[in-house]
Structures are given as structure tokens and as C-alpha cells.
Specification:
Its main location: plastid. InterPro entries: Ion_tolerance_CutA (IPR004323), N-reg_PII-like_a/b (IPR011322), N-reg_PII/ATP_PRibTrfase_C (IPR015867). One of its GO terms (cellular component) is chloroplast. This protein has about 170 residues and is an alpha+beta fold. The chain contains four helices and six strands. It has helices spanning about 10-25, 75-90, 130-140, 155-165, and strands at about 35-40, 55-60, 65-75, 95-110, 110-125, 150. It is elongated and about 45 Å long.
Amino acid sequence: MALSRLTSAGVRRRLPLVGAFCMLSLGFHKLHPFSFTLSTPPRLSSGSKAQGYHRTNIIRMENTVPSIVVYVTVPNKEAGKKLAASIVKEKLAACVNRVPGIESVYLWEGEIQTDSEELLIIKTRESLLNALTEHVKANHEYDVPEVIALPITGGSIPYLEWLKNSTRE
């Protein structure tokens, strides 16, 4: 049975990426870019497991800079390693995740194409998007490289501070 081959570690590795795509598709990107409010369920009757969840938690991003996640696809592992390293070296991003083994299906010059690719997930400052885009265009082998930016609307303040301190101004 296929399910018996799934390990809890395998499931854990996939959930953060799936969760991120679910958050984006549910419209969390429409939230204000500098604050993110999480509401917890109201207190239930006594004896309920949900007791204690009764206040609103606010994560403010006042001490960080507006940040984004940028998606870039590359044709293979070598191209991904090279581009990711050059982006971080130039301090155009704090971190680049390389996700191997994706398959892209797209329309190009009137025909459906299918290619194996690698996805780069780049975390950077919003103010660096133009410089990052130019860097990708200058160092990418595609005629029209994918560069798609999504806002980061909340998260771990220490991580976002590290992102700010690891990139150029």
C-alpha cells in the first residue's frame, strides 16, 4: 500500500510548503503588510479542551523592513546552486531555498511545454526586488526567467530581523 511508505518525516518536510501555498491561496496576502493579527477561538464551556484560548495575539512587524518571498525557476541543480550563491553573495537575499524535482507545464510560442526544473524560494527586502530581478535576468539562461514576488505579512520577528540584517540596504 502506498500509504505505508509515507514516513512522518516525509510528511513533515512537505507540510510547510503546502501550508504556505494554502495561506497564499486563501487570501492572507491581502492583510496589511506591517501587522498580522491571529484570533484564537472564544472560550468554550467548562471542561472543554479549548479553555484558555480567549485573547487576540498580535504580531507586529514594526522593527523589520517590508520583506518578500520571490520565486524563480531554473533548469537544473547546477544553475540553481550558481544563481542562489550569487544572490546571497551580493546580499540581494538573506536566504535561498532550492526545491528540486518540480515539473513545469506552460505555453511557449503556441505550444504546451513540459520541463523538469528546480524552484528557488528567495527571502529578501521588498526594496531589493528591482536589483534582484536585474541580477536574475543577467545571470539566467532563460530568455524570460520567472521572477514572482509575494509579500511577507507576518512571521517570526527574530527571523525577519535576521533577514533585514543579512541583506544590503
